[in-house]
Structure formats: structure tokens, C-alpha cells
Amino acid sequence: MLTYAERSSMPGLSRRCISFLAVLAALIMAAAISARAQTPTPVQPSLPSGPTAIESIVVTAEKRPGNIQKTPLALSTVSARALDLSFVTQVSGLNGLVPSLEITQASGFENLVSIRGVGSETPENALTTVPGVSEFIDGVYIANTVSLDQTLFDIDHIEVLRGPQGALYGQSSIGGAINILTKQPVLNQISGGADVSGGTYDLTRERGDINIPVGETIAVRAAIEKFDDEGFTRDSAIPNFRLDQTHDINGKIAILWKPADNFTATLTGQWYSARENGSAQKNILDPDPSPRVVDQDYPSLFALRTQLYHLNLQYDAPWFTIKSVSAYQGLNNTIQEDSSRLTFAILHAYDDVGAWDTKVANYNEDFEIQSLTGSVVDWTAGAFVLNQASQQFVAEFECAPSAYVERCSPPTASELTVQPTIESDPPGNLDYGNDEHVERRSYAGFAQATAHILPDLRATLGGRYNIDTYTQDSFSFSAFGDGTVRHAYTDHVPTGRFDLDWDVTADDMLYASVARGYKPGGVNGTYGQYIVPATFSPETNTAFELGSKNSLLDHALRLDLAAYYYFYRNMQYIETDPVPFDGGMANIPSIHAYGLEAEANYATMQQHLHINASLALENAAVIGTYRTIDSTLAHAIEGETTPPCAYGGGYNTACDALVVANAANIRGNAPPDMPKVSGSINASYIFDIPTGTLTPRAEYVYRGAEWARVFDVPNLDRVKAYGVVNLNLTYVPTGTRWTVSLTATNLFNVDGINSKYTDPYGTGQTSIQYIPPLQVIGSLGYRF
């Protein structure tokens, strides 16, 4: 069981942070005053002049370097500088910055990533399902979504591929893929830097990196980051306890060996550790109106340790290139949480997860052979292998008044403790205990070829054959009994892609594509459930897309557009069963989705003024009649004291039948996590002043209203729209290597709602997760 240290109960600025911010503000103000007092003259050529304002961006979305404007995919990039300007520290901070990307949370720590409404709605079954949007770090497939809780570290840039990536990326890419590219060692160069940040809520961040050459053929890059804040939310029921904390540390060492011009080997180790109080989720019944105060009597705690080791090899032969990425990932996550999100005194019931512990050991290999760039046919062929062993231990303690429990008493400390082993005599309030072990294997062969039919016309055809298999050993135990089941499952599914792209002019390209992606199905097993099926089917997504990529106004304006239509089949979701705790995975047969996306980058006034904008318009609906049980309605019916449910669901078939009879028809409903409108716009201007450059930047991010569940119940599922303003002011003194910046995120302290979560198990409460409040952060950095 985790322990927690008492934290300061008052948010805001510490004396250290006040002093730090005051010095930064004084430096920036002095620079501005100096600029007014003197005639502005360009003392340093900080930026190139001329009409060609926007630099070309090199991406690796097609598993080889290429110009983003010549890549026939809906593709966005976010640079490390852009992350710093908006002080984005986690993947969830990309919400609104990338069209159609949506990252929400379920039970306070489980990230749900979707692109264009396609992703994952099954976090509680993470061991037997896979994400719908894949994540890669330097070519390594990250196999567990808990890893998305890590802070972004030593980033070069991030690439977000929208739409199914059925050829080159595989099973978890039914909605798209997120490629995180970190900074790499450089030969024959000593370089590095450090920066320190301080801000509200006692935020501190210290980062440092160094690149050291060792002879002519070896270079070593080392980086470290420590990030802390004391949390945005106070728990009024537990003295000196705060939620939404960050207390973590990242470390990385990468060694590059290049003994010849045609061979490189990079060995990388990366480590992450976090130990903090959990994320805040506020029950919609909480009587305190403040979004930054919760009333919860069981402390939510979170600890995560990960390690990632990978070896990247590349050999350039005379006629082709060979690439290999071999990796090991380890993850250890321990959690406890107040699942009711409310005190016993208010709810007269409790639902406390004393343990939700996850361990993952993952090995994977990606091997590719590629043609040389510029061939008549550019081709890639390869194989992917994954071997994963996972374990998850869950112990959930509950008491809720019902037809067969007249009153509950608050639990004692001993009643909330169970060791992560098989219990022969579990506590009487242990409603659900499970020790689950899963062995997963994934194999795929893939190939893709692009034929240059004409100098300005290309056709791309790619395919992948996926074999996914797993075995599951699950031991369930509680005060009501125990049992062991063993399951096995295998999928054989082909996926692929075809597109045509045409250079209308040297600066304008049109493309049309059809692509198919999937993620595996699985086995629920037989636990005595009433309606939940023994197996669930694979998801598939067939996508039709039209797009254009344009460089206008003599390359001062970049404008990319995309339109898509999806035939999304067998969406996996958690289906409620009338038998308590016997819910499982099921499939919504058909969803159609469609949308428009736009991204624009504009630079003018000799590249001093930069404007960037994105917009996504989306819509989707369940097609055909489909009935499923709303867990909140099932709980209400089973709690009745009159027949046929006088003895609760799962104990008589008449009550179970009544629950089924009240299942909702979700025909026409919108799927979760898909706002109809979202986007962002930012503008910055570089002032050349006598003492350096001064760059103010303003940003507006909008996330439209969306639904949290497929039932579309207004008071439970409707997530309201919000918009936030972020500001940044950066000062770079002339002739120095220093950078000073001041950032304000969520300037007007908007109480925006990131997500709502209705727990399908336990007491079935609905809670709200708010976006971070106003934060003011100052940073001081030095590069050499």
C-alpha cells in the first residue's frame, strides 16, 4: 500500500518562485524600455530576410525522411520550441494544437487517445485490449497507455499521423499514430545547455543536456529533467492533501557509433520515475462549488516507474538500406483511488480501490529494408515482432445501501488492505479482487511501394498481415467466492493502404487515399454473466480521404486541407451486465464518421510576424439499431426494494431481464471524445531591439462540446466547450547564449472540463476532470 507525505494546503507562489518571476519580469521590462528609449536598429541578423519565409519540415511518417508537403497523409508536427512556448509537458497538452486529436482520462490516470473519434474506450481492460492510436518513441512501439502519463522529455519534435496507418504502423494505429522523436547524439560537437523554470503552485522544472564526442566515430548525449508542482486541487476531507501533483524525474543516455559513412548504431536508455498524489476528479454530487476543491476521504495515490532500452541500427548498402529497432520496455505502476470521488458522510457509501497495480515487460523488434530515396519505385518491406508479459492486481472495496444491504459503516484501515497475492480469506467488504496475467504475441509482415508513374503523379500501395495472439490467466476473488479461468485468442487480419498523389504545381499537391486499419478482438470468458458475450470482435476502420497541401504567396503561406469519411466497424466498449462486476467487452456494429481539417502557417514582414492556425470540424453517429445497458440505470434498477429486484441483480433472472428490457437504443448517438469543432490560433512577432530580440506570443485554443459516453445522457455525458488563452514573452540578449521567458497558461483561469467519467463498476459515480488552472511560469536557459 502506498503512503503519502503531507503537502502544503495553500496553492500559489512560494517566495523562491516570486523572486524568480520578479527578476525575469524586470529583465523583460528593461529590454522593452531600452527599445523605446533608443532608435530601433537591427543590431543582429537574427532571422533571414526575403519572401521564402517558412522553412521546409522533414518528417519520417513514411519510415524515411521526406518533406511534409510531399507526404500524402494528414500529418501534423509540433516542435520542441512550440511545446516550450505553450509549456506543454505531457501528450495530453496537445489537445487543440493538433486537428482532431483528443486526449482525455477515464479513472484519473488512464489516458484515452483518439483521432477523429477513433481510439480506445476500454481502459479498464488494458491488458486484453490495445490502444486505437499507437505511440512510438524513436521508432519503438510503446505498448501500454499508462506510459502516456510520463512528461515529455528531450524532445526534438512530435509527428501526429491522422487516419488508419494499416501498412507501416500496424494493429494499434486504427485511428492514427503519434511519433515522438527525441534529440540524438551528434559527432564532433561539444554542445549542451540547461534551463530552470519556476511558477505558481510551487512549480519547478530543471533540465540539462550535454553532447560529448569521443574520438571521430562516437558521440554521447545525456539529458536529465526534474519536474515538481504541488497540485491544483485541495481535498477538504484530508488535511494537507492535494491532487493533480507532479513529482517526477527523467533521465536519458544515448550513444552513437558511426564507424563508417554507411553504418550507424545508436544505443539508448531512458528512465522515468513518478511518485505523487493522483489526478483530481470531482464527483458531480460534490457540494463544494469550487472546481479546485474535492471532498474525498480516501487518498488517491500514483507511482510509476518505466525504463526503455533500444538499439537502432542503419546500414546503407549500394542498392538498399537496412534498418533495425530492437527494444525492451519495463513498466511498474501502483495506484490507489477513491472511486466514488466523495466522502462516506455525503454518499453514505464507499467505493475504494486499495490496489490497481500493473507490471509490463515488453520486447519488440522492427526490421526494415528500403530502397534508396529517389528510385523509380520507392519501397519498404519489413517485419514486426512483439512479446509482452503483463500482470495486473486489483482490489476494490465497496459498500452501498441496496435491497440486501440496509446500511453501511465507514471502512476501517484493515478493511481496505489486501496483499497482492491470492487471498484465502479476503475481507468481507472486498467486492472485487483479481490477479490477472497476460502473455501477448504480435507478428506482422508489411510492405509498401510508391511508383512514380509520371514526374508529377505517384501511386502508393501498401499492405500488412497481422497475427495477434494472447493467453490470459485470471484469478478472481472476493468475499463472495473465487474462481480461475484461462483464455486464449488469435487474430489473423490483413490491412492496407492505397493512394494517388498529384503535383498540380511545384508547390501544390492533391492526394486521394483509401486505408484500412484494425485492432484485435479478444475473449471475455465465462464468468456467469447474463448478456456480455464470451468473445468480442476486432475493430476495423475503412477510411476514404481527400487532401491538398499548398505553399502559397511565394512560400509565405502553407495551407493543408483534408476531408475524410470513415466506415468504423465493431467499436469496442465496456458493456454492462446485470450481474455485478461481470461486465466485459462488446462491439457497436457500425459508426460512420466524417470531417474537415485545415492547418495554416503564415510568415510575413521579413519573417518577424508568424501566425499558425488549425481547425477541425467532425461528426459521427451510430448506424442502425443497437441496444446496450447504461450502467447508471442498471444500478438504479438493481437497488430497488420491490420485486423483481428485491434481492438485487445477478441473484434472480427476473431482475436481470428487467435491466435488459431497459437497455438504451443508441442509434444515431455520437461516439465519445469527438468535439464537432476544435482548433487553435497563435501569433508571434519578433522585435529586434538594441539589446537583443523580444518576442511576444499569444495563443487561443478551443475545444468544442463533446460526449463522454455513447449513451449521450446530457447531465452525465455532455462535456461543455471551453477556450483558453496562453501568453509567452521571450527575450534573447544580443551576443549571449541566454534565453529568458515568461509564460501564462489558461490566462483567464477558465474552469474548462477535459472529460467526464462514469465508472461502470462499483457505485457507478460520475466525476469531472478539469483542465489546469491559470499558471504563470518563468524560465531562464543557457545553451553552448
Q: Main attributes?
A:
784 residues, mainly beta, Maltoporin, Chain A, 22-stranded antiparallel barrel, five-stranded mixed sheet, 6 helices, 44 strands, 54% strand, disordered N terminus
Describe the structure.
The protein has 784 residues and is mainly beta. The protein has one domain: TonB-dependent receptor, beta-barrel domain (Maltoporin, Chain A, Beta Barrel), CATH 2.40.170.20. The protein has 6 helices and 44 strands. The chain has a 22-stranded antiparallel barrel. Residues 1-52 have low confidence and may be disordered.
What is the CATH class designation? Mainly Beta
The number of helical elements comes to 6
Q: Bin the helical content.
A: under 10%
Global morphology: globular
CATH architecture: Beta Barrel
End-to-end CA span: 45 Å
CATH superfamily, please? TonB-dependent receptor, beta-barrel domain
β-sheet strand percentage: over 45%
Overall pLDDT metric: 87
The chain-level structural class is mainly beta
Output the radius of gyration: 27 Å
- Total domains: 1
Strand tally: 44
Q: Detail the poorly predicted runs.
A: 1-52
Outline the biggest β-sheet: 22 strands, antiparallel, barrel
